[in-house]
Structures are given as structure tokens and as C-alpha cells.
């Protein structure tokens, strides 16, 4: 993906693998293409954002972006039910949504990523946009059609990311479900706080 496909500074993005997964009735999953990729930081030395997308063979022309949790650092697979989903309901993927999520721009287990300005900017919200734009590009390449309705859902740190999606990037989303948002964390509110991590 060219850098121009990503709405914030980057060196573009790339797909590393794309694997067609057979439908699994027992797990309630349809046939879908699992895509793993990354969005490269603008500076070579800075960490990329790793992401996973799931592209159902039978697509409803909609998408759901899953948020992360805690310090993030783990790629969200966006295959499982989202937290607080109604009991027994089909997953968004099973309902025909493109689903995707990322690691928020680092792969460390704790807060040490906060000493890197790019990783910290991604953690505090910029990864939301970069991951969305990469997913939109891949979806268009796969289906030959742009995303229709796009939604963001998650709670806690992911809820904070949902608020970021609604406030900073409203043109990208048709709806945001941000429950229990971790919006009062000093590390998210005051950029200077990252120096203390």
C-alpha cells in the first residue's frame, strides 16, 4: 500500500499473509480470508502497527473495527465475539462484516513503548486511523468495492480508542460503541507523562 493510502504520516503498509479459512459451522464462522499485515512508521527506526483483517466470502458491505485493551501490544484478531456482545449472538464476521484490529503500534508487554514518540502517538489514538485506512485499502483491493458502513467497538482502553475514532476521525465511521472508556488515564491525557513511563 502506498503512503498516500494512509491518512497520517507513514511509509505505507504491506500484507504479509492472506489465508482462506474454510467455514466452521461448529465455531459459527463463515469462510473468510485472514489477512495479516503492518503499517510502517514514517521513520524506519520506529515500530510498525501490526493488524489482522478478516474478509468474509459473503460480505454485507460493512466493517467493524475492534479496539484493544490495557497497554495493547497484542494484535486483535477480530474473530471472537466483541466484549459484552449479547449472549449467543453471531459474531460480526459470521454476520458478514469485514472485521479488523491491530496492536496499537507496539508489541511490548508493558508501558516501556511510551518512551518512543511514534509508539506513544499510536497508542494514544493515531493507530485507530492508520489501521482503519490500511483495512479500507485491503478491502477495496479484495472486493473491488469501497467499505460501506464502518463501525468501531470496544471498551476500556478500546473504549478510549472509540472516543478517539468519534472525535478525531468522524468521517471514517458510521457508528462508535465505546463502553467503559479509559479516558481519565494521565498517560492518555498528558503527553509529557510518557516521560515518566
Would you give an account of this structure?
With 197 residues, the chain is an alpha/beta fold. It has three helices and seven strands; from the N terminus they run βββββαβαβα. A seven-stranded mixed sheet has the order 1-2-3-5-4-6-7, with helices on one face. It starts with 12 loop residues before the first strand and ends in an 8-residue tail after the last helix.
- Count of DSSP helices? 3
Name the beta content range: 15-25%
Structural class label: alpha/beta
**In this structure, how is the largest beta sheet organized?**
7 strands, mixed
Mean pLDDT: 89
Q: What is the total tally of β strands? A: 7
Tell me the strand order in the biggest sheet: 1-2-3-5-4-6-7
Rg calculated over all Cα atoms: 16 Å
Distance between the termini: 33 Å
Overall geometry comes to globular
- Encode the helix/strand succession as letters: EEEEEHEHEH
Amino acid at each position: 500500500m502506498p503512503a498516500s493510502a494512509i491518512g497520517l504520516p507513514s511509509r505505507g503498509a504491506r500484507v504479509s499473509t492472506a489465508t482462506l479459512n474454510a467455514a466452521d459451522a461448529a465455531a459459527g464462522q463463515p469462510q473468510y480470508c485472514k489477512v495479516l499485515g503492518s503499517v510502517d512508521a514514517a521513520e524506519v527506526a520506529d515500530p510498525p502497527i501490526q493488524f489482522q483483517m478478516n474478509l468474509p466470502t459473503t460480505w454485507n458491505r460493512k466493517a467493524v473495527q475492534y479496539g484493544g485493551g490495557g497497554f495493547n501490544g497484542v494484535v486483535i484478531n477480530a474473530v471472537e465475539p466483541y466484549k459484552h456482545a449479547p449472549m449467543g449472538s453471531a459474531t460480526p464476521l459470521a454476520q458478514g462484516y469485514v472485521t479488523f484490529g491491530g496492536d496499537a503500534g507496539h508489541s511490548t508487554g508493558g508501558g516501556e513503548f511510551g518512551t518512543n514518540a511514534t509508539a506513544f502517538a499510536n497508542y494514544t489514538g493515531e493507530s485507530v486511523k492508520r489501521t482503519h485506512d490500511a483495512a479500507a485499502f485491503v478491502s477495496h483491493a479484495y472486493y473491488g468495492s469501497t467499505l460501506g458502513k464502518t463501525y468501531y467497538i470496544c471498551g476500556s482502553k478500546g473504549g478510549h480508542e472509540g472516543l478517539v475514532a468519534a472525535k478525531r476521525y468522524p468521517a471514517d465511521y458510521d457508528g462508535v460503541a465505546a463502553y467503559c472508556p479509559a479516558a481519565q488515564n494521565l498517560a492518555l491525557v498528558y503527553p509529557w507523562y510518557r516521560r515518566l513511563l
